[in-house]
Amino acid sequence: MADDVGRVLPGPASYFPYRSTGNGLLALTQTGLANSFAAPAGWPTPLIVQLANDCGEPVLNGQVVATFSNGDSPLSMRLTDPDTGLYSATWSPGTVTGSMTVTARAFAPTLSTTAADISGSVTVNKVPVVFSSSTRNNLTELPEAPLAPGLAAYVKGSSLAPVASEPRPFVTTYNGTTVLVGGLAAPLYYVSDGQLNIQIPTELEPGREYSLLVAANGGYALPDSILVAPAQPGVFYFDDGGVARLTAQHFSDYSLVTSASPAKPGETLTIYLIGMGGTNPPVASADLPPVGTLARAVEPPTVMIGGKQAALSFSGLNPGFVGLYQINLTVPDGVSGELPVVITQDGVEANSTFLVVK
Questions:
Q1: Going by C-beta distance under 8 Å and a sequence separation of 6 or more, which residues neighbour residue 149?
Q2: pLDDT in tens, 311-355
Q3: Could you tell me which of 314, 319, 232, 318 has the C-alpha nearest to residue 276?
């Protein structure tokens, strides 16, 4: 038994300075961070404490919560070693700060509540960091949504590239930055410190989860994971006075459909998309369709304009741009006004847009 309140059980590591309330004593022994720690931002940092009562016996029914004075979200620490009463969690520091405190609070039935503080800092980290679930469709930007082969997507993080640039032609390594998805190098549209724009490799098989790994600045980020689906359409649009106007061209002269130049019932239009997935014939990542060949979408879409289905004459890759798809359609008869456009492919709806028809 402890012979005085405040005695810390002996152990092989440094200790949290702790304070307690109540009669029975909980003791926290810290085996992860040490005082005056310097944790790199975004880098996994283990938090480990040993929880025991004042007789030196492991406490197995405790609850331990870590909080952070730099504003990071609290973490629950779970029991990971019942033999010794070790509780642990992994902290990925967010906000860079020169001085902060990590506080561990422990609770257990019939025993005191104990809080322990340890001080340190969060330092700038030039090792690349990919934010969790940050790889998204460029146009829909839905969090944790599946991605399609050939999709133009973005990856958010930090220290992802030394300078902002748009590689031309598309390459898979630029200024030391490479993105691997399922072991395949992804073509790079754009690189910067905080964001990469990539093409999801067309060779990936839908219906599977893949790891995404970024190499930059001489290091590797911890991998993220993405789910690949057959299609995840996103349609191009522009803001017209707060209205998400579908980017559509008059097929006759390729001029833009606007309020001043509306579409007409029965007219053929061309609209542009990303994320329509596999094509027939297949087209490799970063490649254009072969000259004289139409690469049609394997999963046919449907387009509803003002509640009426539009007839499609083509849906597939645009011959002149990597990863850009197009649909040629005929505006249904009997529609007029500022009309909602609903594009669906493989059961997935694209982002909502409007088309003016008169």
A1: 200, 201, 202, 203, 204, 206, 228, 277, 278
A2: 999 999 999 899 999 999 999 999 999 999 999 999 999 999 999
A3: 232
Site of tokens 């600045």? 217
Q: Output the pTM of the full model.
A: 0.68
234-235 and 268-274 beta bridge pairing: antiparallel
**Structure confidence at residue 290 (pLDDT):** 85
Query: Pairing between strand 45-53 and 63-68?
Result: unpaired
CA–CA separation, 89 and 119 (whole Å): 17
Residue count (the chain): 358
Nearest 5°: phi and psi at 55? -100, 5
Closest CA to 245 of 233, 267, 266, 260: 260
Q: Where are the alpha helices (DSSP H) in the chain?
A: none
Q: What is the domain extent for residue 244?
A: 234-357
CA distance 145 to 151: 12
Beta bridge partners of 208: 228
Both 281 and 349 in a single domain? yes
Clarify whether residues 115 and 171 are in a common domain.
no
| Cα separation values, 148 from 5, 159, 296, Å | 61, 26, 15
CA distances from 198 to 35, 77, 134, 316 (A): 41, 36, 13, 19
If you average pLDDT over every residue of the chain, what do you get? 89
Look at residues 170, 201, 228 and tell me which one is the last residue of a structural domain. Answer: 228
- Identity of the amino acid at 277: G
